[in-house]
């Protein structure tokens, strides 16, 4: 017997069958984990397709997405500088995290080295943000004392990186923001490429993408170079103090910032090379320092830590740095050499050497005058000859630190 259903009933049966199929397929997908692979310890499934290390962990390769056989290692936030502990607090690393230990009474603070005292007062407080709504040069010029300018500059550098990586501005290519007084370039940088070169305001940055993103946490992979057009005469050489004297220093380049799109950065396995264009041509007796802005809650100073001078000519200086920050080139203003004084020194020392040599030969070869007194004079002549010779050969081999 054949049953014939009306069209309406046929539609109901079709919908019921479709519901059963959807339920079964949904159950299968749920049971299969939506094709998510089996991830190693301290890793989670991301986007149902890849494994990614949890916060506080990183893979040995430094890549965000890892292979099933890779491990996720704990990041020592205290060692690599990610911890936000106050200076008087002791930082202690934990698996996947860290804590700051300190006593409110500084007399007993040394006990915090041995006792876990995870106190909110031990952590750096978030400082008030400096609004960046106008030209950076004007913002700093209108902020009085040197200490306040340094503090404002630190906040501006941090805020500027946030502004650069907003959705509206973080598009690849070269940009010019006259309102803020900056020019910058952004490039996409995948982990397989070797070198990426960026240029902004006649300054360049040569960065190894693999090394830059090793140990990072973030989804996007892009690098940016920012050149501040007007900060060089405000954050000048007076903000540099290396403790080696009062030698006059002058900022002889624009201030630049190198940054990557990830929120956290552990270290650079390969150095970043920055080439700065001089504001004023260099000279023969000039010493250059590659510096970065070392910010703190109290303000900030120029520091040479982690940055090295790689070479200079009259128009450019090349620096090698092992971290990303805000950089510049300081030039030591060495006094010019007086050519007349130099000539008198060389001629006088040469004549003195000749006379001392003749005196030594006389005391040595003339037997009739040899006695105890001439022996002493011979030794004195030889000592003076060697001292004058050392001074003459080394006078052009020295330079100020």
Automatic annotation (TrEMBL):
It is found in: Cell membrane. GO terms for biological process: adenylate cyclase-activating G protein-coupled receptor signaling pathway. Residues 178-337 form the GAIN-B domain. The keyword Cell inner membrane does not apply. It holds the Pfam family GPS. InterPro entries: EGF-like_Ca-bd_dom, EGF_Ca-bd_CS, GAIN_B, GAIN_dom_sf, GPCR_2_EMR1-like_rcpt, GPCR_2_secretin-like, GPS, NOTCH1_EGF-like. Keywords: Calcium, Cell membrane, Disulfide bond, EGF-like domain, G-protein coupled receptor, Glycoprotein, Membrane, Receptor, Repeat, Signal, Transducer, Transmembrane, Transmembrane helix. It is a multi-pass membrane protein. Gene3D superfamilies: 2.60.220.50, Laminin (2.10.25.10), Rhodopsin 7-helix transmembrane proteins (1.20.1070.10). It comes from the Eukaryota. GO terms for cellular component: plasma membrane. The chain crosses the membrane at residues 343-366, 378-395. The keyword Glycoprotein applies. Its main location: membrane. Residues 1-29 form the signal peptide. One of its GO terms (molecular function) is calcium ion binding. This is Adhesion G protein-coupled receptor E4-like. It comes from Callorhinus ursinus.
């Amino acid at each position: 017997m054949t049953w014939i259903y009306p069209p309406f009933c046929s539609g109901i049966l079709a919908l019921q069958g479709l519901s059963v199929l959807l339920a079964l397929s949904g159950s299968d997908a749920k049971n299969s984990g939506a094709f998510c692979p089996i991830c190693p310890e301290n890793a989670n499934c991301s986007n149902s397709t890849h494994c990614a290390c949890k916060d506080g962990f990183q893979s040995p390769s430094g890549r965000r997405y890892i292979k099933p056989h890779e491990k996720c290692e704990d990041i020592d936030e205290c060692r690599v500088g990610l911890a936000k502990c106050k200076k008087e607090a002791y930082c202690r690393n934990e698996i996947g995290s860290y804590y700051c230990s300190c006593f409110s009474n500084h007399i007993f603070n040394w006990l915090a080295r041995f006792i876990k005292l995870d106190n909110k007062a031990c952590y750096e407080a978030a400082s008030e943000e400096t609004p960046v709504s106008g030209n950076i040069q004007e913002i700093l010029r209108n902020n009085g004392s040197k200490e306040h300018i340094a503090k404002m500059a630190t906040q501006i550098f941090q805020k500027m990186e946030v502004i650069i990586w907003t959705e509206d501005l973080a598009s690849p290519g070269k940009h010019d923001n006259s309102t803020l007084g900056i020019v910058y370039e952004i490039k996409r940088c995948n982990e397989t490429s070797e070198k990426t070169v960026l240029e902004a305001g006649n300054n360049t940055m040569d960065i190894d993408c693999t090394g830059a993103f090793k140990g990072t946490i973030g989804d996007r992979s892009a690098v940016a170079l920012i050149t501040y057009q007007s900060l060089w005469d405000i954050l000048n050489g007076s903000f540099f103090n290396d403790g080696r004297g009062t030698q006059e220093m002058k900022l002889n380049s624009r201030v630049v910032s190198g940054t990557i799109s990830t929120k956290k950065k552990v270290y650079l396995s390969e150095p970043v090379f920055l080439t700065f264009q001089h504001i004023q041509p260099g000279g023969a007796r000039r010493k250059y320092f590659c510096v970065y802005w070392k910010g703190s809650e109290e303000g900030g100073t120029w520091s040479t830590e982690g940055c090295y001078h790689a070479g200079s000519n009259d128009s450019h200086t090349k620096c090698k740095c092992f971290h990303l920050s805000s950089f510049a080139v300081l030039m030591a203003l060495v006094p010019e050499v007086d050519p007349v004084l130099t000539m008198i020194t060389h001629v006088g020392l040469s004549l003195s050497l000749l006379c001392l040599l003749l005196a030594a030969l006389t005391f040595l070869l003339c037997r009739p005058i040899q006695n105890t007194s001439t022996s002493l004079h011979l030794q004195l002549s030889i000592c003076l000859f060697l001292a004058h010779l050392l001074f003459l050969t080394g006078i052009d081999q020295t330079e100020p630190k």
